[in-house]
Design goal:
Layout lengths: L14 H21 L7 H20 L6 H22 L3
């Protein structure tokens, strides 16, 4: 087993894993805050954070062998941001 790999019940063991968790959490908080109109913030910047979190999460899962529950949890909003951004680019309004 790779010494930097993590178990499902543990926390991420790499800086890349922690960055993806941080960006994913920030994306989720900002997205919910803007949807509920608690704050005004650029939707483009929020989606950039979400796409970055999704890409970092995929890299951490595949390349760094992260297996923490936090990484798997951040994968969902990250993939949502990637699919949402692709949908806006491919089928503009």
């Amino acid at each position: 087993m790779n010494p930097t790999s993590s178990h499902f019940c543990g926390v991420p063991h790499t800086k890349l894993g922690w960055w993806s968790v941080g960006l994913g959490g920030l994306f989720t908080l900002l997205f919910i805050s803007v949807l509920n109109e608690w704050i005004r913030f650029s939707g483009f910047l929020i989606m950039v954070m979400g796409v970055s979190a999704g890409i970092l999460t995929l890299i951490a899962l595949i390349w760094k062998k992260e297996r923490s529950w936090m990484i798997w949890f951040v994968l969902l909003p990250g993939l949502f941001a990637i699919l949402f951004s692709l949908g806006e680019i491919l089928v503009p309004h």
